[in-house]
Amino acid sequence: MKDSKLAPRLLTIFMTVIVATIALGWPPLRAQTTGGAAARIQTYYQELMPTIQQAGRLSVRERDKRFAPAITGAFDIPTMTRLAVGPAWTSFSPPQQAAVREAFTRFIVADYASQINNYSGESFVVDPQTTPESRGGGEIVKTKILQPSGRAVIINYLVRGGRVVDVYLNGTISDLATRRDEFGSIVSSGGADGLIKRLQERTQSLLSK
Asked: Does residue 147 surpass a pLDDT of 90?
């Protein structure tokens, strides 16, 4: 499996939304939220903004360090890690599970920190009305990026217990499901240790940019 299999996908688009707020000024929301899961997503962006506004003067490693508290606070990383690994998770020893969680956390934060680019003209809309998620519980927070051309990119978030556990591009494509396919190939050939090694390699590559 090539390293590009772990390249950013939804995270790139997720960061596009965040960086777009710089040009528009905070808050860039068409509808203000007052509580619940939608407000949690809004707060998350607010927490990232000070670092984003200084991104041009910061190295990837500096952004990584500053982003970490907001990202790990907003995302349920233990649940996301378990779901991304899939059935093989139960075959990992407790130390391996802990190491995979740590490697996955570091990868996600480094991925975000490396995805800062210049955007202008986009607007970010959060729907204050969430939708119950019937299969596993939680709420779907619906958002979209409105581009100057008029094109809208839909990104939905699954929030449980006040924290994000999945991201859906075009409203339906699960980031975790995609990662599960990727991780499955790595685990099949190298086990938990192979997955840890690959995630660590990708993280170091991102931080060295």
From this structure: no
User: How far apart are the C-alpha atoms of 176 and 157, rounded to whole Å?
Assistant: 11
Q: Which two tokens stand for residue 188?
A: 């099949």
What is the dihedral sign for C-alpha 82, 198, 63, 124?
Answer: negative
> Hey, which of 47-61, 92-106, 119-133 has the most confident mean pLDDT?
92-106
Q: Give pLDDT, residue 4.
A: 43
**What topology is assigned to 3-207 in CATH?**
Nuclear Transport Factor 2; Chain: A, (3.10.450)
User: How high is the mean pLDDT of the chain?
Assistant: 82
pLDDT for 22 equals: 40
Give the domain ranges of the chain: 3-207
Residue type at 112 in one-letter notation? Y
| CA 159 to chain CA mean position, Å | 12
